[in-house]
Design a protein that fits this description.
Order of helices and strands of chain B: HEEEHEHEEEHHEHEHEHEEE
CATH topology of the largest domain in chain B: Phosphoribosyl-aminoimidazole Synthetase, Chain A, domain 2
Strand content of chain A: 15-25%
Structural class of chain A: alpha/beta
CATH superfamily of the largest domain in chain A: HypD, alpha/beta domain 2
Helix content of chain B: 25-40%
Number of strands of chain A: 11
Order of helices and strands of chain A: HEHEHHEHEHEHEHEHHEHEHEEHHH
CATH architecture of the largest domain in chain B: Alpha-Beta Complex
CATH class of the largest domain in chain B: Alpha Beta
Number of strands of chain B: 13
CATH topology of the largest domain in chain A: Rossmann fold
Strand content of chain B: 15-25%
CATH class of the largest domain in chain A: Alpha Beta
Structural class of chain B: alpha+beta
Shape of chain B: globular
Shape of chain A: globular
Strand order of the largest sheet of chain A: 4-3-5-6-11-10
Largest sheet of chain A: 6 strands, mixed
Helix content of chain A: 40-55%
Radius of gyration of chain A: 21 Å
Distance between the termini of chain B: 58 Å
Radius of gyration of chain B: 21 Å
Oligomer: heterodimer
Number of domains of chain A: 2
Distance between the termini of chain A: 47 Å
Number of helices of chain A: 15
Strand order of the largest sheet of chain B: 8-10-7-11-9-12-13
Number of domains of chain B: 2
CATH superfamily of the largest domain in chain B: PurM-like C-terminal domain
Chain lengths: 372, 349
């Protein structure tokens, strides 16, 4: 398959790994931002191809993982209303809030539907004028344009029975927060190719300069990731800190201007809470005042009830790259995809889920070794 | 034997003026009778006395029998490459084939929802008959119930089948031995992706057709060619990965797979890539694995290649060291395949 096979070629991957080994002279720690990249790394064993001393940390770029538990609880409350059809991306359905998931709400009778796009939710609203259709709008800058276009379309059609529970997040403030943290150990970043396909990478340039940290816009296939790592390590070895674009087959410096225009029209930048991390300035997108009528909270008179959360789940530290899934005493025992304690075990992009799916045998061996 | 010439199934009696199913069609009175006389008997009866009694009597011919049952609740009822009728017959015939048995006869239980179109029921019944003819099996008994509108999903089918075992040795996960070869009968993932595309209206450029088909002919051919079959498993729910994990755990062996040998057709690969699904976990309805001794591997592949150009040797069975695991080569080493905790859900971005 074009654009897939050549980027999964074992020979090309080996050559890139060898090239990395040739230029490395010191230990480096590099964080891939995006959960999709984390899964690709673990699934294809990319981390095992790297020379000793190169450490990969898994970043907070899983939209499911960083959505606060109280948003999920609010989603469940809204979904449980008999007048509501609640629409969500499939990934989000299994994530536990404080009190069950959207799937358990569905089993108890809530009308919860999995959609592939916010436009599908709009179509459901057209078919059911007597019900109110709410779409759970989560995700990074990758999904925000589709949400924005759904709002603009609803406005054009004067569709009144459609609204959003919004929890969109932005990548650059998260990178800055990680770099500014006193316990930061990240030397370089792989930025998410699809986010940059939308937003371009101009906004990463001041971050790379300010924190003297290379940022490489990187794709998702094994050869993409190894090439991104090579470019990042080459910068570190040469003492450079720039934004480079490995994913040039999809990403231009200015990004998609049409998508950005849709986001700017419908949303405003605002502070945002991240699950396990806390509130970050300017890290979220909320509906602009002109589109406030599409806010499900206002429309249905619901408030987001803040809850304590936490427990023994260490997903906050995992999302910040401070700890790895194997460091969690609950991993694979009290916390599994069947009974997740936190979102990183649920989402297909979560680091714990990736380790559980592809590396559980290794965890078992480690446990047996430490027991003997 | 087949008295189709005496009792032409191609010419069903008109169903009076009924065009939708009513509760009375399941009530046992005239409407039920009209359904049986107008639709089921013309389709399934091979002799004038068939479907006139509470059950069917048939010759089994001595020797061991295999017996299976399954329920079919697919949505949509009609999909590219088949419908709930073909699915029911092939699913049941294939479960018997995986026991090394050829189906002798089937029962069909239909649960209809009030308001279901009789025209659609007729289409399904035609498919059932055609699939049964293609698999060389007869539907000999049946039942119909009607549930109130909103209490069903149009149509559910429950089907049971009895088959005659034609394999001379036991076929079961416990027969699998370290060193055995794992042979795959064709390309994977077509049924699951065809259903998903049809259900969600995904509109891929190339329509994906289900692989729904009877598997008794390839199984019969393997046995006729003297291949010593240790285990057979069709790759339905949970796909190839789940089937192999189940065999490995039941047989207490491990398995190593050669990812490059497993064929996935381009439209299925493309759809899986877009949705973030793993084709190794996607359902099939016309594909199976045969686990055979290494010395029979090449012969098994050659036999299966007569039925699908994508049949291949995909891996080998190993002794389980501790836990029984199934692993697959990747660019950076072996990757373990694990049971999914639920259905695969499409990713967000």
């Amino acid at each position: 398959m074009k654009y897939v096979d050549e980027f999964r070629d074992a020979g090309a991957a080996r050559r890139h790994a060898d090239a990395i080994a040739r230029i490395v002279t010191r230990p480096w720690t590099i964080m891939e931002i995006c959960g999709g990249q984390t899964h690709s790394i673990i699934r294809h064993g990319i981390d095992r191809m790297l020379p000793e001393g190169v450490t990969l940390l898994h970043g907070p770029g899983c939209p499911v993982c960083v959505t606060p538990a109280d948003i999920i609880d609010t989603a469940i409350r809204i979904a449980s209303r008999p007048d509501v059809i609640f629409c969500s991306f499939g990934d989000m359905l299994r994530v536990p809030g404080e009190d069950g998931s959207l799937l358990t709400a569905k089993a108890h009778g809530a009308d919860v539907r999995m959609v592939y796009s916010p436009l599908d939710a709009l179509a459901i609203a057209r078919r059911h004028p007597d019900r109110h259709v709410v779409f759970l709008a989560i995700g990074f800058e990758t999904t925000a344009p589709a949400t924005a276009i759904a709002v603009l379309q609803a406005e054009r059609e004067a569709l009144d029975n459609f609204s959003l529970l919004v929890s969109h997040v932005r990548v650059p403030p998260a990178i800055e927060a990680l770099l500014a943290a006193p316990d930061n150990s990240v030397h370089g970043f792989l930025a998410a190719g699809h986010v940059c396909a939308v937003m371009g990478y101009r906004e990463y340039e001041p971050i790379a300069r300010r924190y003297r940290t290379p940022i490489v816009v990187t794709g998702f296939e094994p050869v993409d990731l190894l090439q991104g790592l090579y470019l990042c390590i080459r910068q570190l070895e040469q003492g450079r800190a720039e934004v480079e674009n490995q994913y040039c087959r999809s990403v231009r410096r200015e990004g998609s201007l049409a998508a950005q225009a849709a986001i700017e029209r419908v949303f405003v930048v605002q502070p945002q809470r991240w699950r396990g991390i806390g509130t970050l300035d300017a890290s979220g997108l909320g509906l602009a005042p002109a589109y406030a009528r599409y806010d499900a909270l206002g429309r249905l008179g619901v408030e987001v009830a803040s809850n304590g959360g936490g427990g023994e789940c260490i997903s906050g530290e995992i999302l910040r790259g401070v700890r790895k899934p194997f460091d969690c005493p609950a991993f694979g025992t009290r916390c599994t995809p069947e009974h997740p304690l936190g979102a990183t075990m649920v989402s297909s992009e979560g680091a714990c889920s990736a380790y559980y799916q592809y590396r559980r045998a290794q965890a078992r061996i480690r446990t047996e070794e430490s027991a003997s | 034997m087949n008295d189709g010439s005496m009792f032409p199934p191609q010419c069903p009696v008109p169903l009076d003026t009924d065009d939708t199913i009513e509760l009375a069609h399941g009530g046992g009175g005239m409407k039920t009778r009209r359904l049986i006389e107008g639709l089921f008997r013309p389709a399934f009866a091979h002799a004038p006395d068939d479907f006139t009694h509470d059950g069917a009597v048939f010759e089994a011919g001595g020797g061991p029998l295999a017996f299976t049952t399954d329920s079919y609740v697919v949505r949509p009822l009609f999909f590219p490459g088949g419908d709930i009728g073909t699915l029911a017959v092939n699913g049941t015939v294939n479960d018997l084939a995986m026991c090394g048995a050829e189906a002798l006869c089937l029962s069909v239980g239909l649960v209809l929802e009030e308001g279901f179109a009789v025209g659609q029921l007729r289409r399904v019944v035609d498919s059932l008959r055609q699939a049964a003819d293609a698999a060389g099996v007869r539907v000999v008994t049946g039942d119909t119930k009607v549930v109130e509108r909103g209490k069903g999903d149009g149509l559910y089918i429950a089907m049971a089948g009895v088959g005659r075992v034609i394999a001379s040795s036991r076929i079961a996960p416990q027969q699998v031995r370290p060193g055995d070869a794992i042979v795959l009968s064709g390309d994977i993932g077509r049924h699951g992706m065809a259903i998903m595309a049809a259900r969600e209206g995904l509109g891929f450029e190339t329509a994906i057709e289900s692989d729904c088909a009877p598997l008794i002919d390839p199984v019969r051919a393997l046995l006729a060619e003297g291949v010593e079959v240790h285990c057979l498993r069709d790759l339905t729910r949970g796909g190839l990965a789940t089937a192999l994990i189940e065999i490995a755990e039941a047989g207490q062996v491990s398995m190593s797979l050669d990812q490059g040998a497993i064929h996935v057709i381009e439209p299925v690969r493309g759809a899986c890539e877009i949705l973030g699904l793993d084709p190794f976990y996607v359902a099939n309805e016309g594909c199976f694995v045969a686990i055979v001794p290494q010395r029979d591997a090449a012969r098994a592949v050659a036999v299966l290649c007569r039925f699908s150009g994508h049949a291949a040797l995909i891996g080998r069975v190993e002794a389980a060291e501790g836990a029984a695991i199934v692993q697959m080569d990747t660019i950076g080493g072996m990757r373990m395949l694990d049971m999914l905790s639920g259905e695969q859900l499409p990713r967000i971005c």
